[in-house]
Design brief:
The protein has 187 residues and is α/β, with parallel strands linked by helices. The protein is 43% helix and 13% strand. The chain is built from eight helices and five strands; from the N terminus they run αβαααβαβαββαα. The strands form two sheets. It has a three-stranded parallel beta sheet with strand order 1-2-3. Strands 4-5 form a two-stranded antiparallel ribbon. A hairpin with a 2-residue loop joins strand 4 and strand 5.
Length: 187
């Protein structure tokens, strides 16, 4: 019920919105754990501690390790970003978002650029988060959408043409026409 369109990114983050981008936004040259620790530090709202090394700061490291565990990357905590596979970077970006302790998770095409195996792994991860926090998913991988979403909205040229359950959307003739045209695909 609150219009947030004029809010800055920090204001939205403080309100509990966390976002994963279509193109991964992580810190090169940092380990997986370092990337998540930065999010923990931002959430805690304090500046860098110059008298104590960040590497040994348990108030940063313990929550960072927990976020990595939640996404299945705890075994890759010390791995530099450039050594992670594309799918692992997607998982890491979700860990960064979770470290912010969001009230809402916004996911912009998290399956983009993934192969079927990586996509299946990410769908499993997102399914494990269902019920823990609300998520808004923008995605073109329809298998992922229909397996994850409770409610689906279909947009065509920026306009919603149908909102409903997966089955309602799949069977809608306007959706079928918009995405399949007049032709029926042959097997």
């Amino acid at each position: 019920g609150t219009d947030i369109t004029g809010w800055s990114v920090p204001e939205r983050a403080r309100a509990g919105l966390a976002r994963c981008f279509q193109i991964t936004q992580l810190c090169a040259g940092f380990t997986a754990e370092d990337n998540v620790a930065l999010a923990v530090q931002a959430r805690q709202g304090h500046s860098f501690r110059f008298l104590r090394p960040a590497q040994s700061d348990r108030t940063l490291r313990a929550p960072a390790r927990e976020a990595l565990r939640r996404v299945g990357l705890d075994h890759r905590a010390e791995t530099p970003l450039d050594e992670l596979a594309h799918g692992e970077k997607r998982q890491l970006e979700i860990a960064v978002a979770l470290a912010m302790e969001p009230r809402l998770l916004l996911l912009d095409e998290p399956m983009a650029g993934m192969g079927p195996e990586e996509s299946a792994g990410l769908v499993k991860l997102l399914a494990s988060l269902k019920g823990q926090l609300p998520m808004v998913l923008i995605e073109h991988d329809m298998d992922a959408v229909f397996s994850l979403a409770d409610r689906v909205s279909v947009l065509v040229t920026g306009r919603i043409i149908r909102t409903g359950t997966g089955d309602e959307v799949r069977s809608d003739p306007n959706v079928r026409e918009a995405y399949l045209g007049d032709e029926v695909p042959h097997a």
